[in-house]
Amino acid sequence: MPQANSVVVLDFETTGLSPNLGDRAIEIGAVKLVDGEVVDSFQQLMNPGFRVSSFIESYTGITNHMLRTAPSCDEVMASFSEFITGENLIAHNASFDKRFLDAELERINRGYSGEFACSLLVARRLIQDAPSHKLGALVRYKNIDNDGVFHRALADAQMTAKLWLQMVEDLEQSGIVKPSFQLMQAIGKTAKGKVNLLLAKSRA
């Protein structure tokens, strides 16, 4: 059974909130974890084929000038589809990143075989007393090393990976030996009040 600590953690920066409204990816960042160690990373700006808004420029720090010389989304996503072959995937607020991953890969007739788990949903169940479940707030709450850079894809993927591994480690320390990827998915889908029951069964 796939282990929770061998995954690809990814993050997109985009021109807006929905590919259905014509929004495109402008940066992908990802780290590959094997047995809890970062073994590879992927980071690339991509040109969506139109100018991004000044809001997105200031929010992400990614400017139209930077994107002008970046390769196309199609080119970058073709490389990225190879990077994630056979891997399960993690993102913070995964429904957002999955929408963009699916939309961008569909444009180039590529797919992927792995499944998604959402570190945001898992954190809401396992770190219920955090003041907020935004990535930056969780990183601060759990005292995770960071360089203060957020809303750039690779930095966010690296932070999400550290948060994910911290949650896996917390489960191990609570008596769950080598948590599986499927257990993490199940935690994310379980009602907050029933999580302890699920974890107790996993220790049995």
From TrEMBL:
<feature type="domain" description="Exonuclease">
    <location>
        <begin position="6"/>
        <end position="173"/>
    </location>
</feature>
<dbReference type="InterPro" id="IPR013520">
    <property type="entry name" value="Ribonucl_H"/>
</dbReference>
<keyword id="KW-0548">Nucleotidyltransferase</keyword>
<keyword id="KW-0269">Exonuclease</keyword>
<keyword id="KW-0540">Nuclease</keyword>
<dbReference type="GO" id="GO:0003887">
    <property type="term" value="F:DNA-directed DNA polymerase activity"/>
</dbReference>
<keyword id="KW-0808">Transferase</keyword>
<dbReference type="InterPro" id="IPR036397">
    <property type="entry name" value="RNaseH_sf"/>
</dbReference>
<dbReference type="InterPro" id="IPR012337">
    <property type="entry name" value="RNaseH-like_sf"/>
</dbReference>
<dbReference type="GO" id="GO:0008408">
    <property type="term" value="F:3'-5' exonuclease activity"/>
</dbReference>
<dbReference type="GO" id="GO:0045004">
    <property type="term" value="P:DNA replication proofreading"/>
</dbReference>
<dbReference type="Pfam" id="PF00929">
    <property type="entry name" value="RNase_T"/>
</dbReference>
<dbReference type="InterPro" id="IPR006054">
    <property type="entry name" value="DnaQ"/>
</dbReference>
<dbReference type="GO" id="GO:0003677">
    <property type="term" value="F:DNA binding"/>
</dbReference>
<dbReference type="GO" id="GO:0005829">
    <property type="term" value="C:cytosol"/>
</dbReference>
<keyword id="KW-0378">Hydrolase</keyword>
<comment type="subunit">
    <text>DNA polymerase III contains a core (composed of alpha, epsilon and theta chains) that associates with a tau subunit. This core dimerizes to form the POLIII' complex. PolIII' associates with the gamma complex (composed of gamma, delta, delta', psi and chi chains) and with the beta chain to form the complete DNA polymerase III complex.</text>
</comment>
<comment type="function">
    <text>DNA polymerase III is a complex, multichain enzyme responsible for most of the replicative synthesis in bacteria. The epsilon subunit contain the editing function and is a proofreading 3'-5' exonuclease.</text>
</comment>
<protein>
    <recommendedName>
        <fullName>DNA-directed DNA polymerase</fullName>
        <ecNumber>2.7.7.7</ecNumber>
    </recommendedName>
</protein>
